[in-house]
Write a structure and sequence with these properties.
GO terms for molecular function: hydrolase activity. By secondary structure, the chain is α+β, with helices and mostly antiparallel strands. It is built from 18 helices and 36 strands. The structure holds alpha-L-fucopyranose. Alpha-L-fucopyranose binds at residues 351, 363, 368, 372, 440, 503, 583-584, 621, 659, 672.
Length: 791
């Protein structure tokens, strides 16, 4: 279960990521001059600012009038009046460089990232001495730990330096090397004005976020010393370097200057604590912590095709998605990256997780919330990493707090947010005060989509207290906004407007347009939110009156329609698409990750959705390919899903930005060229959807098994209702399964062949139209139920 290479990284997308949720590093593995590119998840440019458009109510009214008269292109232009500033950017923290005095002429070089223990290793031989490095990011010790060893006593000599592309200085204090700096007060998005200088303030008075990184060492043999130029180790046999960092960020609504945290005190405290422990202790606490999460899920699809020692980059190139071992590796890598980028107390992972080297990252390495941030968390629950969902839950709560103000500018109650945001939780349309375009900036439905994560957290864990105290109040307020935002059309349907199908345009009578009324995705999102709120209020046995309002509003939502190609319409009118192969497939929300459209409940619309997906073609960027795998899983077509598995698993050779292709880099990072992490998470989540589903009120085993994976097993994935599922299959059919009940709910289970539940006090069996059995049995909390397959 390793990523492995026989040479150092030649570029960033060959370097290997480690992370403890908050601190991240990209390890390059150079022999003479090792480079760890460093990140801290709260280091962003800018600060909280006022961004609400003062005339929003009047502009909204004007836009709605244009929409009513079919002037969609004109309405799209008027939407610019509503746009606030662009979001700010996620910043790199710096670099840790280790310069060794042994030269560069190494033999027997190897470099790896082992997913079984979350440790990256580098090894090589110079002058008969074997040098090894072990590098990991420890969540319990809040540190990045670098262990260096030489096979001969006294042969380890190097100096370590810290630097940063941000404004900074380095100093030494009490045996540690310090990197002190600040983020820019303003950083224009790279696609907007790449030549505009980044603006900094003075360190002591800047309104931007300040940061501090600290490096300390413990040596075995030899001596260590620190001066402003670096940390020097001479004649040692082994050394442990510990790096800690913190920033002054203290929440989206607090000034990092006057209400900030003290990065010096925090990083010094973390470093002192970590340096009190020897390497064996640091190693043990990291491995215990990591494995407690990672080991919960196993996947086996078959024998790997590639020979055992083949470097990962070559392996992707030679075999791609045909190598079952590589599929397993990429699957587990998504879980690894979840653990590395999202832990309780960290911020939600952004477009690049927590790994970014650029001061002008692509799309500002922001939170794009019209698919991307959500996709980052698709595998958290099914992949049995519920605690890693926590940063997303906290993010949604912050967005709700911030988004009330934006709702109010439209004259609405509740909370709302547009298509992207940053660490300051900007919720107005992030469109550069009218420089942006309506088809992306004017999407208004982030509230419903983000709220789905709260509801799903409840559904998977069956935690009523979480639902009552944390989830429902936020879901309800998102619904309150939707009730205010919806208005009646000429036929009495409730519609949204301006409404986009993110980020796609259509040909209207008055030109190319981005906004209309009641796009299919808007209606699906609102249906989903209302339905979840209705279920939540039933589960909590409260709020009946509000529930009734939702029930009646839901019945009046503008209905989905089938268009002239037999496709599920993307918009309420059967417009001609601007780009029939567009990477966004917003109107598929109701199939996946939503569940409004299913073969059993809505067969005609479900078939039309399938037709719409076919029309979209088989290409896409990384996240788009990953989404399509999940969609074909929901359509029950594993072989079709394999087309996208293979496409996503092609080696991507370019880092030039484009909107059409996908793939993976040699370090398995997903490409929407350049790197964008959502496709990694989407891949992992969608793969589970092929094997175990639970969105229709029952657990379904092997809903869409590809023919290429005739035998295998998956252990420990989670299903709604508080269940944990393990499953083995042969000849494409389930042969054994076990279900652990964590919540004691009745289990409903569907498999494509007759089954018996052992030791359950009896089960009721319904034979379904598809021919398989839908079995229901009562469970006790904490018990495991074995399933036998009979025919
Ligand atoms: C939107 C998408 C792009 C990309 C970016 C972060 O612009 O359309 O494909 O995901 O966000």
């Amino acid at each position: 279960m390793k990523l492995q290479y026989i040479e150092p990284a030649r570029r960033w997308t060959e370097a290997l990521p480690i992370g403890n949720g908050r601190l991240g590093a990209m390890i390059h593995g150079h022999v003479e001059s090792e480079l760890l590119q460093l990140n801290e998840d709260s280091l962003w440019s800018g600060g909280r600012k006022e961004w609400e458009a003062p005339g929003a109510k009047a502009s909204l009214q004007a836009v709605r009038e244009l929409l009513a008269s079919g002037k969609y292109a004109e309405a799209s232009l008027r939407c610019k009046e509503l746009m606030g500033p662009y979001n700010e950017a996620y910043m790199p923290l710096g670099d840790l460089r280790l310069h060794f005095e042994h030269g560069n002429l190494a033999s027997e070089y190897e470099r790896s990232l082992d997913l079984r223990d979350g440790i990256s290793r580098v090894g090589y031989t110079i002058g008969g001495v074997r040098h090894t490095r072990e590098i990991f990011a420890s969540y319990p010790d809040k540190a990045i730990v670098v262990r260096l060893e030489a096979s001969e006593p006294g042969r380890l000599t190097f100096h370590a330096r810290l630097g940063s592309p941000l404004r900074h200085r380095t100093l030494s204090e009490a045996g540690s090397l310090i990197l002190r700096g600040s983020a820019p007060e303003y950083c224009a998005p790279n696609h907007q004005n790449p030549d505009e200088p980044i603006r900094y303030g003075e360190y002591d008075t800047t309104t931007a976020i300040r940061f501090e990184g600290r490096l300390g060492a413990r040596c075995e043999g030899g001596a260590a010393s620190v001066d402003h130029d670096g940390l020097h180790v001479r004649g040692a046999t082994a050394a442990t370097l510990v790096f800690c960092a913190a920033t002054s960020f203290n929440g989206f609504d607090r000034s990092p200057l006057t209400e900030g945290r003290d990065p010096a005190a925090l990083s010094a405290g973390h470093l002192a604590d970590a340096l009190e422990r020897d390497y064996a202790e640091l190693h043990r606490s990291h491995v215990d912590d990591y494995r407690a999460l990672f080991d919960r899920v196993e996947l086996r699809l078959g024998e790997p095709l590639a020979p055992a020692g083949m470097p990962t980059g070559k392996r992707i190139e030679a075999y791609g998605g045909g190598d079952l071992g590589l599929v397993e590796l990429l699957f587990q890598y998504g879980r690894y990256l979840t653990i590395a980028s999202s832990r309780p107390g960290s911020l939600a992972s952004n477009l690049q997780g927590i790994w970014n080297k650029d001061t002008r990252p692509t799309w500002s390495s922001n939170y794009t919330i019209n698919i991307n941030t959500q996709m980052n968390y698709w595998p958290a629950l099914t992949g049995n990493l519920a605690s890693c969902h926590e940063p997303m839950l906290a993010f949604v709560a912050d967005m709700a707090a911030s988004g009330r103000k934006t709702a109010a500018t439209y004259g609405m109650r509740g909370w709302m947010a547009h298509h992207c945001t940053d660490v300051w939780c900007i919720t107005s349309p992030s469109g550069g005060y009218g420089n942006g375009e309506a088809h992306w900036a004017s999407w208004t439905m982030a509230g419903p989509w983000l709220s789905r994560h709260l509801w799903e957290h409840y559904e998977f864990l069956d935690d009523l207290r979480f639902l009552r105290e944390r989830a429902y109040p936020i879901m309800k307020e998102a619904a309150v906004f939707c009730l205010d935002w919806l208005y009646e059309d000429e036929d009495g349907y409730l519609v949204t407007g301006p409404s986009t199908s993110p980020e796609h345009r259509f040909h209207a009578a008055d030109g190319l347009a981005g906004v209309s009324r009641a796009s299919t995705m808007d209606m699906q999102l609102i249906w989903d939110l209302f339905t979840n709120c209705i279920s939540a209020s039933e589960a909590l046995d409260s709020d009946c009156e509000f529930r009734d309002r939702l029930v009646s509003a839901r019945a009046r939502l503008y209905p989905m329609r089938v268009g002239r190609h037999g496709q599920l319409q993307e918009w309420s009118v059967d417009f001609e698409e601007h780009d029939v192969h567009h990477r966004h497939i917003a109107h598929m929300y109701g199939v996946y990750p939503g569940r409004q459209l299913t073969r059993r409940e809505t067969p005609e619309l479900f078939a039309a959705a399938r037709r719409a997906l076919e029309r979209r073609g088989d290409d896409g960027t990384g996240w788009s390919l990953a989404w399509k795998i999940g969609l074909w899983a929901r359509f029950g077509d594993g072989n079709r899903a394999m087309t996208f598995v293979r496409k996503l698993m092609q080696l991507c050779e370019t880092e030039e930005k484009n909107y059409h292709s996908g793939g993976i880099y040699a370090n398995l990072f997903d490409a929407h060229p350049p790197f964008q992490i959502d496709g990694n998470f989407g891949f992992t989540a969608s793969l589970i959807e092929l094997l175990v589903g639970s969105h229709q009120g029952f657990i379904e085993l092997l809903p869409a098994l590809p023919d290429d994976w005739p035998a295998g097993f998956i252990k420990g994935v989670r299903a709604r209702g508080g269940f944990e599922v393990s499953l083995r299959w042969t000849d494409g059919k389930p042969t054994e399964a076990a279900i652990v009940s964590h919540a004691g709910r009745t289990c409903r289970l569907y498999a494509p062949r007759p089954l018996t539940v052992e030791e359950s006090g009896g089960a009721t069996v319904e034979t379904t139209a598809e021919g398989g059995d839908l079995v229901a049995f009562a469970t006790e909390r904490g018990r495991t139920y074995r399933i036998r397959f009979d025919g």
